[in-house]
Design goal:
The protein has 23 helices and nine strands. The protein is α/β, with parallel strands linked by helices and 512 residues long. The chain has four domains: 6-174, Rossmann fold; 180-241, Helicase, Ruva Protein, domain 3; 246-361, Zinc Finger, Delta Prime, domain 3, CATH 1.20.272.10; 405-500, GMP Synthetase, Chain A, domain 3, CATH 3.30.300. The strands form two sheets. It has a five-stranded parallel β-sheet, with helices on one face. A four-stranded mixed β-sheet has the order 6-9-8-7. The longest helix is centred in the middle third of the chain and has 20 residues, at 278-297. It is globular. The protein starts with 5 loop residues before the first helix and ends in a 12-residue tail after the last helix. Bound molecules: zinc ion. Zinc ion binds next to helix 4.
Length: 512
């Protein structure tokens, strides 16, 4: 039998075998059992989390020769062909290849013909967000009145790029990233089956590197197995991944904490001279600071790292919450800029020394994050402002208008109505100010800020622009103390001073 990579060999063949998506597979199995089958499904979620596998299992369940049934036989011609992707009634279309132009044309021509030998004609369209506008229009026409024998399963990593008209006609299922534990268990089970000798720490490291994507983790195990002569150790994983051993990170964290610039320089030299992947190195460093942040917030156990790593990281939980957030933000900034920097080793060295001296460069209360061009950090040198605010001093034309905080509540309702998935990330935000082209808000939650500036940014910006009728730059600050001030003082004057590091020279109020 020819060699099959682990990701294919261990691809799930039934709903029960799909890992970590029980909220979806149980619902689908029940729908089949009760014969309540939708005409179009939308599977969304990160790559490598089981969308296409689930689409094939759903197809098998529907078209199994003894089906439809929630547990397809896996033995009939239909089941076997669907698993291999060669069944004439289950047509798989890759939206990313040529944006589906030829395949959607074919689909339009053939869709009204009955299936060749099954109950349903099933179209699985992967990366559906890549389709052309014409293709979406054609699909929409079909979805409005689908032939009884046709079922669509759309899969996408970027559902926000789909027209609302398509989404609203689908039964939507959101696949989630797998946890470290789920991935580690699957790797263990594969290792056991394949008689692979592998360290527990090496398993953890692979699970960690895969960022919730099971396919990547299985691919890495495959590679490590081919690469190693006998046992797979963390050293094998380090060499293959291009990420330095934890001992190097441990030394770096210590030098940063001690503001030891020459120590930092030595580590940067080591990393460059050893040929490690700088981007992966930075991503790993971000993860470590993120864990320090999590450890600071709660004493809950952190999965995916050995006890040694966790106890080393616990030494740094005395950093303030804001300085950890600022550190992580700076690391993200370095990670996105370093590839454009010709002398990247010096850039990295200086930036890490900068991080070690963050307390000299930023003032917690004036720390703001600027979303322009997806750039997420913006430091202002510390400049103490006069705390006194003279409300009667009216002299400047460029005043920041004082917002009406009711307005923000209305906006939140608007978000809840139009984008329920975005709403939870805004519930702990407060409006600081709204100018003709800048909206400033603060949140208490660093993760929510990240979600707003990254995953949900385009949607958030669209709703802001719609609701406030304009084109706005969004400024999001994260500060527990700042947010609390709003609640306590019921007055955001001081906050504006702090966020903008400015003196207030004029206040205008509505006559009403
Ligand atoms: Zn079957």
């Amino acid at each position: 039998m020819s060699y099959l990579v682990f990701a294919r060999k261990y691809r799930p063949k039934s709903f029960k075998e799909v890992i970590g998506q029980e909220h979806i597979t149980i619902t689908l199995a029940n729908a089949i059992k009760k014969n309540r089958i939708a005409h179009s499904f939308l599977f969304t979620g990160p790559r490598g989390t089981g969308k296409t596998s689930t689409a094939r299992i759903l197809s098998m369940s529907l078209n199994c020769e003894s089906g439809p049934k929630e547990n397809p036989c896996q033995e009939c011609t239909n089941c076997i062909e669907i698993q291999k992707g060669i069944n004439p009634d289950v047509i798989e279309i890759d939206g990313a290849s040529n944006r589906g132009i030829d395949q959607i044309r074919e689909l339009k021509e053939n869709i009204y013909f009955s299936p060749v030998r099954s109950k349903y004609k099933i179209y699985i369209i992967d990366e559906v967000h890549m389709l052309t506008r014409e293709a979406f229009n054609a699909l929409l026409k079909i979805l409005e009145e689908p032939p009884a024998h046709v079922i669509f399963i759309f899969a996408t990593t970027e559902p926000h790029k789909l027209p609302e008209t398509i989404i609203s006609r689908c039964q939507r299922f959101d696949f989630r990233r797998l946890t470290i534990l789920e991935i580690t268990n699957q790797l263990k089970s594969i290792s056991h089956n394949e008689k692979i000798d592998i360290d527990e720490d090496a398993l953890l490291k692979i699970a960690n590197l895969s960022d919730g994507c099971l396919r990547d983790a299985e691919g890495f195990l495959d590679k490590a197995f081919s690469f190693s002569e006998d046992k797979i150790t963390t050293d094998t994983v380090n060499r293959l991944s291009g990420i330095p051993d934890f001992s190097i990170f441990k030394a770096l964290l210590k030098h940063i904490n001690e503001k030891n610039s020459s120590g930092i320089s030595n580590i940067v030299n080591t990393i460059y001279n050893s040929g490690y992947d700088i981007s992966l190195f930075l991503q790993q460093l971000i993860k470590l600071y993120r864990i320090i942040y999590q450890l600071k917030l709660s004493n809950n156990s952190i999965n995916g790292f050995s006890d040694d790593v966790i106890s080393s990281l616990k030494e740094y939980t005395n950093y303030s919450e804001i300085s950890l957030i600022a550190t992580i933000n700076t690391l993200f900034e370095i990670e996105s800029n370093i590839k454009y920097t010709p002398i990247s080793s010096i850039y990295l060295e200086i930036k890490l020394i900068f991080i070690s001296n963050l307390d000299k460069f930023i003032d917690i209360d004036t720390y703001i994050i600027n979303s322009e061009n997806s750039q997420i950090s913006n430091y202002k040198p510390i400049k103490k402002t006069n705390e006194h605010c003279d409300k009667n001093n009216i002299s400047n034309n460029n005043a920041i208008p004082i917002s009406d905080p009711n307005k923000w509540d209305d906006f939140l309702k608007y978000v809840d109505d139009n984008s329920p998935r975005l709403h939870p990330f805004l519930i702990d935000t407060n409006l600081v100010s709204i100018d003709k082209n800048v909206i400033s808000i603060v949140t208490k939650n660093e993760i929510h800020k990240d979600m707003l500036l990254k995953d949900y940014f385009s949607n958030f910006q669209k709703l802001i622009n719609q609701f406030f009728s304009g084109t706005y730059k969004i400024v999001i600050g994260v500060s527990k103390s700042v947010s609390e001030n709003i609640e306590k003082e019921d007055n955001n004057l001081n906050l504006i001073k702090k966020v903008f590091n400015a003196e207030i020279e004029e206040i205008r109020r509505d006559n009403a």
